[in-house]
Amino acid sequence: MTIDILTLFPEMFDAPLGQSIIGRAQAAGHVTIRCHQIRDFTTNRQNQVDNYPYGGGRGCVMQAQPLHAAWQHAKALGGPARTICFSPRGRAFTQADAVRLCRDYDRLIFVCGHYEGVDQRFIDLAVDEEISLGDFVLTGGEIPAMAVADAVCRMAPGVLADESCYTDESHWNGLLEHPQYSRPDVWEGLEVPEVLLNGNHRDIDNWRRKQSFLTTLTRRPDMFERLLFTKADLKLLGELRADTNDPAVRDALAWLHTDRITVRRATERDERYLTPQDGATTFAIYAEHHGFCGHAIYRIAGTVGQLELSLLPHAAGKGIDTFALTHVLDALFSEPGVDVCVCTSPLSEDVVRRIGFSLGLNGQFILVKADQVQLNDDSD
Fold first, then answer.
1. Which of 114, 234, 238, 276 could form an S-S bond across to 140 if both were Cys, CB 3.0 to 4.6 Å?
2. Which of 163, 138, 45, 43 is closest to 88 using CA atoms?
3. Using one digit for the tens of pLDDT, what is the confidence trace for 71-126?
4. Omega of the bond leading into 184 within 30 degrees of 0 (cis)
């Protein structure tokens, strides 16, 4: 993994990325991190990299020319690279992004913005994506660049002793990490949980997973509601609910005993599960007893809507398909001019009976809008 960083303050990176694990990884040749002073690529005597914004306003804007020249220099040092600019306008960085960048790219170029921003023309010409650390503003892109470089490089081959060093941590599988303890057994009157001392690895694994569930539920309920649970997980969650003295936790886990289903138009929160479909409207399907269950998409051609339903195996046979199709059909038929729905997914007899699809001549399932008396010959 090689990272080239375009910055006005290269000295800021010496300590954070030159010490500890990342520093040792660089010394061993597992990763290479190079900083490039943007001022070295200016064409004026003052090494000026900023100027007033067109249209007026406070502050200055980083100019496109020195950034582009520094970017070209970095590009010429190796093979293809993905260019990332750090900006409050960017998409919030997650562990999934760290995994993607480490897995998919051998070279990255980081652009550290400053002042009131970066000339949009450089972004349009050279930047592949914009990233933010969160919904707050920093004085420059150096701190985000350090954080992302650390998150990405620590997963590069050879940097850590084993993959479990990062796969067992917070955010890897959608959970926050369980509490950790070390020697001595008793400190300041506080004891290490007995289960960690009994040597039963199955009990330890179950305890740690339950504690991860509990930590995620109480600290990041937004993450918890997106989790997909196995049957074993549901058993552990039931034990957690029975054992807790916290009424808020019991109430939060009460949904495990319901079958409520949620179908919603896909949003950014569903990106972990769904791949966007060009020209299609996508719905994410959740059942509170079963987590994420699948998706439904439709496309429209004239008066005909083509619908596809895809459920995960654990969601089959629970009536989720009927509920989801009914919901999505309501949305589809509310589109102007749509009179017919053609469903390309295989449907069970129960769904056909409940919703009213019929089998067309070409083997597709067809449903006519309620106020249409007949189906045109060319619709199927």
1. 114
2. 138
3. 999 999 998 999 999 999 999 999 889 999 999 999 999 999 998 899 999 999 99
4. yes
* Helix, coil or strand: residue 287: strand
CA–CA distance, 204 with 247 (Å, rounded to integer): 25
Tell me the helix, strand and coil percentages in the chain, rounded to 5.
40, 20, 40
What are the tokens at 238?
Answer: 């039931």
**Buried/exposed code over 235-270 (b: 16+ C-beta within 10 A; e: otherwise):** ebbeebbeeeeeeebeebbeebeeeebebeebeeeb
Amino acid at 301: A
Query: What is the predicted pLDDT for the residue at 136?
Result: 92
Identity of the residue numbered 179: P
pTM of the model: 0.62
**Which stretches in the chain have pLDDT values below 70?**
161, 163-173, 226, 228-231, 254-259, 289, 350, 353, 361, 370-380
**Measured distance CA(341)–CA(366) in Å, rounded:** 6
Domains and CATH numbers, the chain: 2-153 (3.40.1280.10), 186-257 (1.10.1270.20), 261-379 (3.40.630.30)
How is residue 75 written in tokens?
């590009």
- Sign of CA pseudo-dihedral 370, 375, 378, 380: positive
Task: Please tell me the distance from the alpha carbon of residue 212 to that of residue 174, in angstroms, as a whole number.
Answer: 10
Beta bridge partners of 292: 286
Cα gap 133→135, rounded to integer Å:
7
C-beta of residue 85 within 8 angstroms of C-beta of residue 111: yes
Task: Tell me the pLDDT tens digit for each residue of 125-169.
Answer: 999 999 999 999 999 999 999 999 999 999 999 998 676 555 555
Name the β-bridge partners of 262: 286
